[in-house]
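User: Could you check the structure of this?
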Amino acid sequence: MENTMVTLMSSFIDLTEEEKQGILEAFPIKTYPPKTNLLREGQIAKDAFFVIK
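Assistant: Sure, the predicted structure tokens are below.
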């Protein structure tokens, strides 16, 4: 199953099925309720976030 990140990347470069699968494994989609604080002031980030919607 493709996600938005794979679709976006595919519009710029050609990806093999293996590369697409690698992206899906490396960047799992996590869902958070609206208004959730992903990082607080002074907190060191341990993750990177891409807001899809």
